[in-house]
Structures are given as structure tokens and as C-alpha cells.
Amino acid sequence: MTVALVLGALLAVLCVVWVARPFLREPEPVDDTLAEPEARRLALLDERDRALGALKQLEFDHRTGTVSDEDYRAAVGGLRREAAEAIRALDALDAPPSERKEVALVG
User: Fold this and answer.
1) Secondary structure letter of residue 97 according to DSSP
2) How far is 103 from 88, CA to CA, in rounded Å?
3) Domains along the chain?
């Protein structure tokens, strides 16, 4: 009777270890680098957000009188152009492959 209990307990322990084996191993490292298209998309999103944020700040400063009309006119065109180029490039990335054309960011 005790031999059967010991063998049963040993078998139960072996089954638990066998089932738990995948959870006890160290996970294999996964390559977490971004693919080239995703890295480009993130760069374009950053460029768009930076240009739109700068435009928003410039508009605010102009409305509050911190930036003169001349300085506003000198800066707003370039910022709008940067934002538009980034948005066009993002749209080109989102277009179906048959309609894609490469848009380079000037920067």
C-alpha cells in the first residue's frame, strides 16, 4: 500500500513538473526593432506633430501679441509646408500599394 502511494505521489509530481516545464523556462528574447515602414511612419508622425504643435504655439503667440505680424508671416508658411509634407507622406504610406508614390520629406 505505501509503495503504491509513493509511486502515485512520484507520478503526480512528475506530471506537474512536465506540465509546468514551459512556464519555468526563461523566455527567448524577441527582436523588438521596428520594421523600416513602421520606423518611417513614426518619424513622419513625429514630424507632423512637431510642425502642428509649433503652428499652434505660433498662432497662440501671435494672438496674444508676443509675436509680431511680420514674424508670424515669416514663420507660418514654413511650418504649414512642413506639416503638409508630413501629412502627404503619411497619406502615401496609407494608400493601397497600387496607388502609392514615394513622397520625400524635405528636412
Assistant:
1) G
2) 7
3) 2-99 (1.20.1440)
